[in-house]
Amino acid sequence: MKLGVLFSGGKDSAFACRLAMEKNQVACLITLVSENPDSYMFHTPNIRHTDLQAKAMDIPLLTWPTNGIKEEELADLAAAIAAARERYAVRGIVTGAIESVYQAARVQRICRDQDLWCYNPLWQTNQIDYLRRLLKENFSIIISGVYAYPFDASWLGAELTEEHIQILERLSQKYKINPSGEGGELETFVLDGPLFQKRIEIMKASQSYANYRGQFVIEEMQLVGKPGKAMSQEMDGKIPYEEQNPTEMMHKRSCILLVDLCYEKDSLSQYEFVHPIRDTLQKLGFLCNILHYIEVKPLDLANHDKIILCGTALMDNVYAGHLELFSWIKDFKKPILGICAGMQVISAVYGGSIVPNQAIGLEEIDVVMDSSLLGEPRQIEGYHLHNYAVTLPERLSLLAGRIDAIEAFRHRTHPTYGIIFHPEVRNRWILERFANL
Question: Which of 51, 112, 123, 333 has its CA 20 to 30 A from that of 92?
Fold first, then answer.
């Protein structure tokens, strides 16, 4: 699939680009050049230097101007994405979003309106582990801006090192900052990495700093050759973003099976919809295995204590054409949780319908029935990302929402649950409750 990457020159968009190139073609980079240094949507430090980074990676760059006015800048982003679609025939857009619902939801809506896939391969990743992964994969990254206490001027222009990561981890614990800067605490600029055929060398720079705000401004730089074979866009083999569970863990008891419902095995979407659930559960001490839905066999069902059917991208409804592969759900008496697309599968297996219903972003949810999964009736906030919802079959009971807008259900006699919202983004306690059923 041809993809366009929203590219700021920082570490997140560069690493998202690296992940996108595992199985896809990155046809272009897309840079929004904002006149507003405090843009809500776009990175601004050294943004005009992404052209040299694009040359270093040998990927075409599309730059697009914006005044950076809140919300109005979204029209400029939509125009830039439309231009990328027309010029480079891209079928999807990749972002470096990690936790910002504000940014991710807006890009999702723009892509939906233009009938494009939207990929966020860093979504909900553990930020400290991610920073270490960048070093492990030989990214050379400098701090190009700081915008929060307690960052002082010594951070400006500093290279990201293990020592800095340890400091960021301590600051995160003490001050609740996002260690990767997702909350705008800091910005970065990539000088080299596995995608770079040449590295960038800074010749001249300056900096300004006052009141815990500062920028490292690159004034002159050049491309320098690097030894070794240049990496092509096709890449010789997939480099895993995160270490997978060892194969010897398969078929162990007391283990949760995560069923990947994405359009193909090991797709770019798996990073966004499956890995965050795995990471959350593993942090809680549970063993997890991942199988694509076409791989699930009776032995896999027998050797796992619980099953989670994970969500998929907005454009992805391939699973709905293979409902015969999920007939085992009716006979599985151990706990099952269907998330978004997984909820749709459970409803359809029990005779319900998958119906059009679009929602992107945070919404209030009314819990209407007491249950082991959601607790007592009350209101909670959930992150929605779906083009389809479900009807309620006879054997399922409403837990949250309304009969014409179902947010959650459970089977009347089996521990089988479905929720349309994403607990890996908001309400991770739901995953813990399910794992402890």
Answer: 51
